[in-house]
From TrEMBL:
InterPro entries: Integrator_9su (IPR027074). It comes from Parelaphostrongylus tenuis. Its main location: nucleus. GO terms for cellular component: integrator complex. The keyword Nucleus applies. GO terms for biological process: snRNA 3'-end processing. Keywords: Nucleus. The lineage of its organism: Eukaryota, Metazoa, Ecdysozoa, Nematoda, Chromadorea. This is Uncharacterized protein. It is found in: Nucleus.
Length: 93
C-alpha cells in the first residue's frame, strides 16, 4: 500500500491510495482557497470596487478594502497534478 497526500492544505485533504492493483483517490477536490484573496469579477466599469485605492503605487492590481488587500484579476485555482494520476483503472462508487 502506498499513500500520497496531494493537498497543500492539511485541513483540505486529498489523498491518493495505491494498492497493488487498485488506485483510489479520496476526497479529490480542487482547492479554491485562493478565491478568498480576489475581488469579484466586474463587467461594470462604474462599480465602487473599480475605484478602490491601490495598496502600493508600483502594484496597481492590489487593492485595499477595509484594511484587507485583495487582488484585482483573474482568480487562480490549484488543481491536483495530473502526472500523479493513472487513468488505467478507476473504481466508481
Amino acid at each position: 500500500m502506498h499513500l500520497t497526500n496531494l493537498s497543500c492544505h492539511p485541513h483540505k485533504p486529498s489523498v491518493l491510495l495505491r494498492f497493488q492493483n487498485v488506485t483510489v483517490l479520496l476526497d479529490c477536490t480542487v482547492d479554491f482557497t485562493p478565491f478568498n484573496h480576489f475581488l469579484p469579477h466586474l463587467d461594470d466599469e462604474w462599480s465602487r470596487l473599480k475605484n478602490l485605492p491601490s495598496f502600493r503605487d508600483d502594484l496597481p492590481y492590489l487593492k485595499l478594502l477595509k484594511e484587507t488587500v485583495f487582488i484585482e484579476g483573474a482568480p487562480e485555482v490549484n488543481p491536483i497534478p495530473l502526472e500523479t494520476l493513472h487513468m488505467d483503472m478507476w473504481i466508481i462508487f
